[in-house]
Design brief:
D-Maltodextrin-Binding Protein, domain 2; 8 helices; 29% helix
Length: 261
């Protein structure tokens, strides 16, 4: 479907919220004041109607799935993956008969396939596209202009095993130590066990990894670059990274001394 597809970046933006868990209320919609007949707005004539480019405005044009031909290839964030699966199923239910390939490889991996090699039609991401990635898209032949379509906002949950009985609350400073230089839990807090910290985190291609490292390590420690913060995280002992969320969940469940996000 490459020749006809809309080049699309589907994104879920992470917010700076961390929830410690052992495994918002929505705001009210604004109520518009009723408009009386005497206050009826003037209707512009056809010649005065503004022309809105839907893609520039971040609005996707309406598509009839049964009329779409060719195959669709999408890849990227594991955060967006379940939503993409649901959208894929709905698209097929509504008449799409082509082949849709969907891969969970992390936001960075998705952007690489989208912008560096031009392999995919859709890039799923849990972070905004970087300037360097936009430039890589423009360098393709033919050039690509990514269109971002935001589908949601999520927070990061920091999790421990149900067997963990000592960790009920942590400060941002403690969290930074847990995922960098501390070796044992007692190195962070002497009241915690003198047992090795077993760390399970998303891989380096993950937008979630980038966000967590920036908010928990780089900013609080005053590091100049995100790469410095990443180096600290990746140098930590007993660290396992994976782009597969199920691998992280199984790792955390396996020990009372494990932690992940």
């Amino acid at each position: 479907m490459r020749s006809k597809s809309l080049l699309l970046v589907v994104s879920i933006v992470l917010v700076s919220a961390f929830v410690l868990s052992a495994c918002s209320t929505p705001s009210a919609a604004p109520v518009e004041e009723p408009v009386t007949a005497t206050e009826a707005p003037m209707v512009a004539t056809a010649t005065e109607a503004p022309v809105v480019d839907e893609t520039v405005a971040g609005i996707l044009p309406e598509v009839d799935p049964s009329a779409v031909t060719g195959d669709i290839i999408s890849a990227g964030s594991s955060t967006v993956y379940p939503l993409s699966e649901a959208i894929q199923a709905l698209f097929e239910q509504e008449g799409y008969t082509g082949q849709h390939t969907l891969s969970s490889i992390g936001s960075g991996g998705g952007f690489e396939r989208f912008c560096k090699t031009g392999e995919t039609d859709i890039s799923n991401a849990s972070r905004a596209i970087k300037d360097s990635e936009v430039e890589a898209c423009a360098a393709l032949s033919p050039a690509r202009v990514p269109v971002e379509f935001r589908v949601g906002t999520d927070a990061i949950a920091v999790v421990v095993s149900k067997q963990n009985t000592f960790l009920t609350n942590v400060t941002l400073e403690e969290l930074g130590l847990i995922f960098t230089t501390a070796t044992k839990w007692s190195d962070v807090n002497p009241e915690w066990p003198a047992e090795n910290i077993l760390r399970f985190t998303p891989g380096t291609d993950s937008g979630t990894f980038d966000f967590f490292t920036e908010e928990v390590i780089q900013k609080p420690q005053g590091l100049k670059t995100l790469d410095e913060a990443k180096a600290l995280v990746l140098a930590a002992s007993n660290l396992q990274t994976s782009e597969d969320d199920n691998t992280l969940v199984q790792g955390v469940e396996g020990s009372p001394y494990a932690i992940g996000y």
